[in-house]
């Protein structure tokens, strides 16, 4: 029997979608929990504490956005949004809630499984290199414990935010394009680059005293972003 690699809560009001996602995830070795509405999703989340949530935003009763906010309030469990809302504004709205990834319907079940695996791998395994803490003044990132503190206070970073910050802090002074960050942090050489933009904005809100005038994460116009150490 294939070893389980995690417990996934799939939340979607479409029975056919839930069934397809369940079958593909189980085939990949995951334990799968199902919910067809927001209330059931929150109850299942509280009872079973899944390792990841696949979440449709359009749900009856308690909406998907409210479910995502509630999940975020209780920890850093990764969330992959799965929805028919494919406009850029909708994608940005989902990412602003703290989602780690965004898959638009109609979708490839195989691609969804790959994205779930990618997010979970980064959330549950420390990187194979650079295990030592990275320190920049009052900002301390501990890859092994997957903790980041600022002025001694732990930051509530999502999986992608943590990985993005770790990548930038390990490469100070280097300018990265959005495409390079998408490949290095998300593990994809394709996809919507606005994902990087939204995560960068959220990260700045958490580590910069003035997010509108960042001094650690600089925008390199025409290129992308660069991390400038405060202590150097």
From TrEMBL:
Pfam families: Response_reg, Trans_reg_C
Annotated Gene3D superfamilies: 3.40.50.2300, 6.10.250.690, Winged helix-like DNA-binding domain superfamily/Winged helix DNA-binding domain
Any one GO MF annotation of this record: phosphorelay response regulator activity
InterPro entries on file: CheY-like_superfamily, OmpR/PhoB-type_DNA-bd, Sig_transdc_resp-reg_receiver, WalR-like, WH-like_DNA-bd_sf
Span of domain OmpR/PhoB-type: 131-229
Keyword tags: DNA-binding, Phosphoprotein, Transcription, Transcription regulation, Two-component regulatory system
Name the record gives this protein: DNA-binding response regulator
